[in-house]
Amino acid sequence: MGDSKRIVYWLRRLSEIAMYGWLGTLLLLDLGLALVVGGLQWLPAVVGVAGVVAVALRRRHRARGFTLMLGLSFGASLLFTFTGLDGVPGMAETGALLVLVIGVLRHVEPVRHAALLACLALVVLMSEAGARDYQSSGLVFAFLLFAGWSTAAGVGGYLRFQQERRSEAVHSVRRAERLELARELHDLVAHHITGIVVQAQAARTVAAAKPEAVAPALDAIAAAGSEALTSMRRMVTVLRTEDDADRKPGVVLADLRLLTERFSADGPRVAFEIGPGLDDRTLPPEVMTTLHRVLQEALTNIRKHAARSAWVEADLRRHEQRLVVLRVRNFGSGSDPRVSRLGGGFGLVGMAERVEALGGRLYAGPSPQGAWEVIAEFPLP
């Protein structure tokens, strides 16, 4: 885990602790107020305890807990109305409702259900102000509760907007890359089919003069057809999972080296090494496509976010005969949290899913040596 992720983790933990501390303080104030006012004023304190429990369980039972909390609060207000006793809105009860409003507006699907629950919360809060009119202070309570609800609704709506905007951006990136993959699939099929047709024509030409040459040609045609079907299945799997692409079949390992040389011409120097046991026949076309795209994305991120890197190290190696690993590392520049794993650039979102669709995995983050690295692993057939 990088330093930035560790800081974010602890900030979230501390904010949770602060929230529970705030609700606990409000609950103590409710208990003190119940001792002073007496009567039914103990009821808001009990509802406040239920509200703290609902907040604690909000991730597993968000809508259900919020609905139950609305029912308890509204029922308490009705009881105050029917008895005619004075009361004060529960502070922990109100605080829990406002926290739950933020979560509901941010997470509940569809959005119309979230909006409906938020509006019901406003009705419940206003009923608190009207039913618990302690010494004719209902108007003041109504104003304060409306201000609190407006703030909570604004925060929840803003968080929902940011979440929806990012989801739409990721979806747009994937949709655009699917179109690129469809073009790539066409070229891949054409590449294999062309080879099959050429071999079939050659076999027919030599069939009369050298019949013994037909059997090897048929074996080659069968092998090419099997390879084409395997590549097509893997590529269609990637298409179905909405992934990326940016290279056409027929481009070779030399294009990876050419990509690093072009980057070095106007950026940090790149040392690129291809390990033993790897050549253009070793790697399937769809793996070559993704290797090229991952390398391009990694170098693009370095140019955008770490242009002052001293140098870049890239290598492509084969491990244990059935695993090929591409690693790109840049040195001399601090890691940028904007390109942390799947958290910033949308290119990495598509890259990770494409790599995983081919049975591999992608990692992007700081290395133990202090460099920023991108690692893509692919199993070989």
Brief digest:
With 381 residues, this protein is an alpha+beta fold. The chain has helices spanning 3-37, 42-56, 62-83, 91-107, 111-131, 138-207, 214-240, 253-265, 285-305, 346-357; strands at 269-274, 311-319, 323-331, 361-366, 372-379. The relative contact order is 0.07.
Shape: elongated
The proportion of residues in beta strands is 5-15%
Mean pLDDT: 79
Task: Give the strand line-up of the largest sheet.
Answer: 1-2-3-5-4
Ranges where pLDDT stays below 50 over 5 or more residues in a row are 241-249, 334-344
Encode the helix/strand succession as letters: HHHHHHHHEHEEHEE
Structural classification:
alpha+beta
Counted beta strands: 5
- Work out the radius of gyration: 31 Å
Distance between the termini: 32 Å
**Sheet with the most strands, sense and barrel status:** 5 strands, mixed
Question: What's the structural blueprint in terms of helices and strands?
Answer:
Elements: H1 3-37, H2 42-56, H3 62-83, H4 91-107, H5 111-131, H6 138-207, H7 214-240, H8 253-265, E1 269-274, H9 285-305, E2 311-319, E3 323-331, H10 346-357, E4 361-366, E5 372-379
Parallel strand pairs: 1-2
Antiparallel strand pairs: 2-3, 3-5, 4-5
Helix pairs in contact: 1-2, 1-4, 2-3, 2-4, 3-4, 3-5, 4-5, 4-6, 5-6, 6-7, 6-10, 8-9, 9-10
Structure explained in plain terms:
It is a single chain. With 381 residues, the protein is α+β, with helices and mostly antiparallel strands. The chain is built from 10 helices and 5 strands. A hairpin with a 3-residue loop joins strand 2 and strand 3. Helix 2 packs parallel to helix 4 (91-107) and helix 4 (91-107) packs antiparallel against helix 5 (111-131). The two termini are 32 Å apart.
